[in-house]
Amino acid sequence: MLVLADANLRLDASAIDYIELAFYFVLVLGIGYLARRQVSSSLDFFLSGRSLPAWVTGLAFISANLGAVEVMGMSANGAQYGLPTVHYFWIGAIPAMLFLGIVMMPFYYGSKVRSVPEFMRRRFGKPAHLVNGISFAAAQILIAGANLFLLASVVNLLLGWPLWVSIIVAAAIVLSYTALGGLSAAIYNEVLQFFVIVIALVPLTIIGLVKVGGWQGLVDKVTNSPGGTAQLHSWPGDNLTGFGNSLLSVLGIVFGLGFVLSFGYWTTNFVEVQRAMASKSMSAARRTPIIGAFPKMFVPFIVIIPGMIAAVTVSEYVKDKQVLLDGGTAESGVTFNNALLLLMRDLLPNGMLGIAIAGLLASFMAGMAANLSSFNTVFTYDIWQTYIQKDRPDGYYLRLGRVVTSAGTVLAIFTAFIASNSGNILNYLQDLFSFFNAPLFATFILGMFWKRMTPHAGWSGLVFGTLSAVTVWALSKLGVLGLTGQGISFVAAGTAFVVDIVISVAVSLATRPKPDEELVGLVYSLTPKETREHDSTGENAGWYRKPGLLAGIVLILTIALNAIF
């Protein structure tokens, strides 16, 4: 990315584009300033006072995920692998989002915990809590760095600034509104950013399809380009997994991605769960991920298809796509991460270019702000307040939260340079998810449905599961296992899950469990059904507010999309 501005790949923005961007940034900072006026306690700063309606938290839930992974990462995957990338949405997201809303949110919201690690402390005790808190905080800084790197890349292409200058300026913008208004500022900006992203990417997709002669024209061009017809069918996805065997590829996608990575990310990742926790009622909390699932189904059409179009129309890819697919370095200096930017450069006129750039910046800011807002909550509540400074006045933790947000931003600046070394940012992020989310999901799911699981099993399963994922990744990078592509993260995640379960069961059988009375509200079989249900009267009344019915509609639509593509 460092060479892009010197390789004549600059975006040719005009005065109108810069005016649109300036207006957008003023709006973002204004929302942060207004949100600050509503912050009077640490609960307001970290969880929006648990006062937001479901439609706001639902859009924020999906917008928080529309960062580097969704926009640049999935468009890069679209350019590199094609339609198999839809598995990250229809297999690797929707089922887990529905499970979160129907099964897990009643435990999170009903227990009134302030974070996912706090739930771990109540279920397993302090050792598991501390391991989860530290690993989560580290993961958010690394992922925030990836979002920041891509945000800075746009500034680099737009203005030609050195990458390090772009990273610092981009970080300052996100920090300004996140530190001002806390979670409320992040959430309301995420709602705004959701609409900006859609307005930016839908025209780009339509114009791109017109250029290639519609869907059939795209099919013809992809068929005759490096990668061929494997990029036009979602199943079996051999090119995505790199397994070279269709049966193993399907198993890797369904188990590694669809179960372990997906459920690990969506059901235990506090970045997402925090949005639902900010809801005003149990019903709203349960509906939050389900509402987010509706737009999630259709995001592939505005991120993957532009990546596919870029791969067959952008001159740099037409020349060097085979080189990139073979793992080489393109003469032009481009990587698949640049797909969306280069398509914007080639297709969008001034005026529309400014909106598209604002959409990209919005996506990266939404992702980074989500990482920072969850990082400051976990660090302040689960690490500092629990283990370092207990029982201080609430104002102390509110002030600390703003300081921690600033410190997290500085750390993200350093991790942005780590992310800059990845040719496909999604590979990098999926590796991180296999390290941190896959073993956490194993611990959660076993602990929630097996009351015999003990506190010692909670922390030991997490530690050994994470170490096993890192080992698989290291052996793959050294060539010992022979895994390539995103199959590395699928296998690492599956290994972490299995190792965590085996260790947890073995340790549980050798150690003492908690008494049943201490597990009420934390274990499914010991929690009365009425406490898991939501109030369906008043503002929660109406068939269209029933979480089960909404989840059923989403599931039917998702199955239909899988059948069609």
Describe this structure in words.
It contains 24 helices and no strands. With 565 residues, the chain is mainly alpha-helical. Helix 1 (15-36) runs parallel beside helix 18 (352-388), helix 8 (126-159) runs antiparallel to helix 18 and helix 8 (126-159) crosses helix 19 (394-419). The protein is globular and about 65 Å long. The chain has helices at residues 15-36, 42-47, 54-63, 69-80, 87-90, 94-110, 116-124, 126-159, 163-212, 214-223, 238-241, 246-268, 270-277, 282-298, 300-313, 315-325, 339-347, 352-388, 394-419, 425-449, 455-477, 487-510, 529-532, 547-564. The longest helix has 50 residues, at 163-212. Mean pLDDT is 81; it is low at 1-7. Helices cover 74% and strands 0% of the residues. The protein starts with 14 loop residues before the first helix and ends with a helix. It has one domain (15-564): Sodium/glucose cotransporter (Up-down Bundle), CATH 1.20.1730. This is Solute:Na+ symporter, SSS family protein.
